[in-house]
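Your task:
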Amino acid sequence: MGNVLGMGRAVRATPGPREATGSTRGSADSAGPRRLPETAAVLEVRHAVRAWAGEYLPANAAVAVGLSGGADSLALTAAAVVEFGDVDALIVDHRLQDGSAQVAADAAAAALALGCRSARVLAVDVGTEGGLEAAARTARYLALDAARAGAPVLLGHTLDDQAETVLLGLARGSGGRSIQGMAAYAEPWGRPLLGVRRATTRQMCADLGRTPHEDPHNLSPEFTRVRLRTEALPLLEDVLGGGVAPALARTAEQLREDGALLDVLADELLEAARVPGTAGDEVALSIETLATAPAALRRRAIRSWLLDSGAKALTDRHLRAVDALVTAWRGQGGVAVGGGSPDTRLVAAREHGRLTLRGHDRCPRE
């Protein structure tokens, strides 16, 4: 891209093979934390960031912030600069709209004005797999991960985003895991604002005299999440008398706590079920050990085993079919799951009292 401007300095971006990056650093008299007004919104966001940092990061840790220029990430950036000190802003330019380079440059300038140590623009190519929304998310996370230089990346997801995520999970019907929502910290991704409402981040921007960028995609009804935000949630709030978003977020938190315990128990079951003497591609599980375990733990253990062995894009149908090899076997053949290589596919099967997962040659027409 061209020059990225901030605080009177310009550094020319250096394009890479699939992304362009531009970095700016504040000058000696402009860098450093900014004093923020002590309004209710500012204090709420700062307290959320401080509490999150106290739980998940060591003192004086440096962090990166994924900054879009929108209200949520802008408020997060301002609070992070005060609470952490050393903050590097990473701005992803998806290049999906006219003028996106200028939006990214403006966000970089805002980051430096707020006191970030540096601001870097990452221009990415967005693919098509899974639809535009999913492809943009994939490109964004890959770019942030590549640029974070080992630091955790703070993301501006709010309580409202969490509620939308839970509703999307409910619609998929993929079980408790899909409605656990987003984790407050899943290394390297940190989400300090999951208990803060979107209205609060907007108010904080107003209190700071900052005008956030309004992404047109956030109002486009072609995206499911946008319709949840603008149609479904307001309707639920009206029908149920309010409080829906916080209730959904609480549900996610409770399920996440339950899920963490179940994961520990499932790992213990998985270890107990491993057949001695097998390793690598030949890891097998004892049918007898699995069959005597509660269904919820057994399926959790099988899911973990499949994923650890290279399976991908597991669905509830896949998982229940593999589970049936353990609990309802009537001589049926193996179950093909996603994963493998261009020449092989992964197939789970029951063999001599063991559950196995191996690569099988694909048919020519596959």
User: Anything to note?
Assistant: The chain has eleven helices and 14 strands. Confidence is low (pLDDT under 50) at residues 1-21, 27-32. The longest strand covers residues 344-351. The CA atoms of residues 273 and 289 lie 5 Å apart.
